[in-house]
Structures
1.
Amino acid sequence: MRLGLAGTGRIGSTHAEILRDLDEVGSLVLADADSARAERVAAKLGVEHAPDIDALFGAGLDGLVVAAATDAHPELIIRAVDAGLPVFCEKPVAADIPGTLAVLDRIRKSTVSAVSTGSTGSDTVPVQIGFQRRFDPGYAFARDAVRSGDLGWLHTLRATTLDPAPPPAEYIPHSGGLFRDCGVHDFDIIRWVTGREVTEVYAVGTNRGAEFFAEAGDVATAAAVLTLDDDTIALVSAARYNAAGYDVRLEVHGSLNSIAVGLDERMPLTSAEPGVRPSASAAYPGFLERFHPAYVRELRAFTEVVAGAAESPCGAADALEAFYIAEACETSRRERRPVRLAEIRR
């Protein structure tokens, strides 16, 4: 198959290298608003380069991968589905809820291209959103353990996402804030692992880091208590300053047993207990290293979607639900009160 990729920054370049090496991908074409950057990345990887987005859409594609800046996501998704092209897009679908709803409405009205997938034209265009944790073996094991009943009924989940260092200052004003940019991965995986919906949140945030967080109305550290629709409690913690290393974990506690994702020799925590030796393994420096195998599985899954062999494993509607939770948390943080999800969905 012939795929296009829009956006050749850090995550886009990573995706391009993965796609180039997949047996399922026969050819790959890269484009970027910064054409020179796309050309450099294409030359480095030995793949094709389109001078602009118009040329990319005219390159005879079977599917499109979107890894551009967030503000470009809605236009690129809509353009792809209007052309009948299956599309993979990094989260979020759009920068806000109205924008996300508008994209979902366009997807529902779309018709898949018979040329790209062999479809009869009766289905909507498949859209896959990039929540890579769904493709990590640890999270998949946790989901299976919950669904099988091995843990009994759940009472508590603890989700942690701690970055080793903050992103560049210029990124923060356009990131959507810590809950929408970072915590949204935890919100999605809590829904996916438990199969439950969040009904209410209470969130707080502080900023003891660089001034550019406060200047953008953001925080560098945040926490939220989520109440699920079966009264399970989920605790979510996120931070931009965790110099010990990239720390992403999920604890799932049930009436019969408890398990943890990310509890391995690379977890960036040192035990304070006497006689317990520190791990000899270095912590993950960032999310690209921690989740690289998951990114490979995620993009291979997209090739199956493009081929018409599988449905999207994470649709735009799933991304909207995680966004609702993030929006509720941000509202709670700003207004210092519990927020019910029904209030955000109005």
Note: The chain has 13 helices and 13 strands.
2.
Amino acid sequence: MPYELYYWDGIQGRGEFVRLALEEAGAKYIDKARSSSGAQTMMEFLKGSHGHEQTPFAPPFLKDGNVVVSHVANILLYLGSRLALVPDDEQARYLANGLQLTVTDFVAEVHDTHHPISTGDYYEDQKPEAKARATAFIRDRIPKFLGYFERILSGNPAQSDFAIGDRLSYVDLSLFQVMEGLGYAFPRAMAAASGDYPKLRKLARTVAERPNIAAYLKSDRRLPFNQSGIFRHYPELDLA
């Protein structure tokens, strides 16, 4: 049976981190919300009216037969060994999960650059606060997080170009998505820091060139970045 991925249609969002893992592994999956009745099915799950004892709080969540797994890091922890996207030993699996949880923290901060006050209000209703938040994010948080991941890549005992061990893991796919998203949302800021994260930039190129990922990026399954997702480009929030 194919995996069933539940996430909002029309945006990459947090669901993209799961899609990249499924695509890299060549796994069969259904992006349910993009099907005719998928959105309704997803809402039934969220309301607990589907008759399943496992009710997610919010998408994304993955259904594998009778198993339902929610939250990006948890989904990737579940898929990692099944898709051969994490080393076999237990310590490496927990290391990968910790790195993915750090990505989760970073992605939440990215979102807050354009919605610092309330997710229930439009960006236009909180523009001054968003500008202040984005300025601090570019100045302090991008270097904090990307500097950390750069050190992880540099300190890999296997001396490979990947985050863990000597082969690609789901963490590498997520770091690719982070670099792509930041480049879309803050192109001037990322251009100004072009020489600061050579290993992350090399990793992003390596991931983009992998056959399954390259094919995915060219397909209509890869939704474009837009102003409804997590990574949004508002020129006024970028570097002057």
Note: The chain has a mean pLDDT of 95.
3.
Amino acid sequence: MTSRLVPPVGPRRVLAFAQLANSVGDGAYYVTSALYFTHVVGLAPRRVGLGLTVAWAVGSLAGVPLGRIADRRGARGTAVALAVGTAAAVGSFLVVRGFVPFVLAACAYATAQAGLAAARQALLAGLVAAGERTGLLAHLQATLNAGLAVGAGLGGLALQAGTRAAYFGVFALDALSFLVCAGMLLRLPPVAPAGVAAAGKPDARGVLQEQPARNRDRLGVLRDRPYAVLALLNTVLLLRMPLLSLGLPLWIAERTTAPAWLISALFVLNTGAVMLFQVRTAGGVTGLASATRAVRRSAWVMLGACAVFALSAGVTRWAAVGALTVGAVLQVVAEMGQSAGSWQLSFDLAPADRVGEYQGFFGTGVTVARTLGPLVLTSLLMGWGTPGWLLLGGATVVASYAMGPATRRAAVRTGEDLGRPVPVA
């Protein structure tokens, strides 16, 4: 069991513990931030929502340039600096009073978070062999969920206390967690800037060969249309992200007779399943072909989850509980498969000297899902009911099947060895 949660000794374990450190703080932040900004800072809920939307939009734009800095200046130093920057941004929330300072602090937080995610991926790529990256990312995802669960428990204690000091303690803990993360990242060996590591290889005469123009192009990731299509399709798959935090709670409260405590139980079910089974799920994903198959299979499972969720409306209390529980199990199975497949694709199709930049671009899908997901889910589920659930699942299947040809085109352009044919249907 331990091997599923903790990677082997070495850089991979340090990366996991760094992830654990800041995820504990983030878990506490996530469950308390809305009430902190409204009750302590004194902002109206709509202003909080507007400010966070603006902040994550800014963060989505910052991921690519900050990832490029990680590639060119060194991933470890950039990751450490951005972890410290995130700590400073969280700390600034303790002193902001008013809407404009809040938006500025939130923009700084979202920017540092987006850049840190890209720099970490570049650091991982520099320290871990290509064939081991998806497995390590599965370990990191399990670690992330464990930390979020612990942090959410600590945040719950602060909510129970309901005092200004308790909220301050949560934000101080989150800031401290990122400083601890930065300290752990400093323990990793340095990774040479990608421009140095992949500047070219000498030919038989000892002359340094030029890299392809695509790798030297400053707008490489933005002009790489096959990779951009892949990232867009992955964004469609990620629209399910706010499901546990927003879509299902609203559905349960307004369309079913299930008890309110089931919302928390389904969250625990999801995080626990990812902790225990994400590494095993990722074990079968070893290349482009297996990645696209995993994404396609997970989409069908997600369609099944949506259909079962829809059945929870208009039935008895315990029938609703049963349907929602089965749906949640199917949903987390789909989530783990889609995550493993997308990790493999995002790394294998990125040029070696631009991993940070490309990961920063691919990671914007998470930001877009966080920004648009609530609007999409509330419109589909609360507005359309059962047809909305089926449309959500159907869109997931369509996007997953489009991954096959998109991956083939991206692989041809990068010269990646497909091994076996990539499924296209």
Note: DSSP finds 18 helices and no strands in the chain.
4.
Amino acid sequence: MPFSQRIQARGIQLLLGGMMSRVHKDLRFTDIPKQTEPLRVETGAGPVNCTVYRPTDSTGTPAPVYVNFHGGGFIVGRPEQDDHICRYIAAMAGCVVINVDYAVAPQRPYPAAVTQAYDVTAWVADNGPVNNWDGSRLAVGGHSAGANLTAAVCRLARERGTFSPLLQILDSAPVDMVTDPAAKQSPLAKPLLNPHLMRVFTGAYVTDPADVAHPLVSPALADDLAGLPPALVITAENDRLRDEGDAYAKALDAEGVLVTHRVFQGVDHYFTHTGPVPAGKEAIELMAATLRTALSA
């Protein structure tokens, strides 16, 4: 990555870091008690800090577990932006939630985040008894860049046969990093994501152009989707990423993957964090309800 682009990525990283920490006040679920604890997991790409959210109602038996990957264009390291989602899911889906603070670019480009995301999830699956969760009942998910990492984790889990997620949640996922962002349309004149910003994200994250089409970077370009976990795919009508998310849902379904796909109308990228509040709440409620069903199977 040229030095000038790296500086630009760092500037955007610093600017967006503060903005993405702000969640709409009516989406914070402050009425739900938060029970958290720190966790540090060693991975092949260095140690990773995580936050563990415990369900408020304990049944006395180990709860299933959900591993969450935050968004931020692969360059913003702010897992706290998903605090409201993690808190709500822990309470309403009755599961332990692991919120992962994975490595971000341009300091740590691909494949560091993929390695960390997979290794943390594999560790969570293998270390349930000593941590009072059931690693055999596991799901993964995330928003935007975190949804991309979710798809990568599920692909690696299938290839290596190490664990089998019961559900993957893909919320506004970038799954085609090859197509030029200018070709990705939105009904809005000025959607949240603009082509320049998206190019900076990709350039910072994937430093070798040969990797952009790799299935772990652009899962929508893979031709072997059979055998992946059931998926909840959420897309937003006004999001530049809507078309590729819709197409990925259809491709998964065509390969026999059980897919629940919901397009939220009249909203843009990041609506689960900034609103509109009714749509944001409905999407988060859908995540929790789908997780509860999948993890209780």
Note: The mean pLDDT is 94.
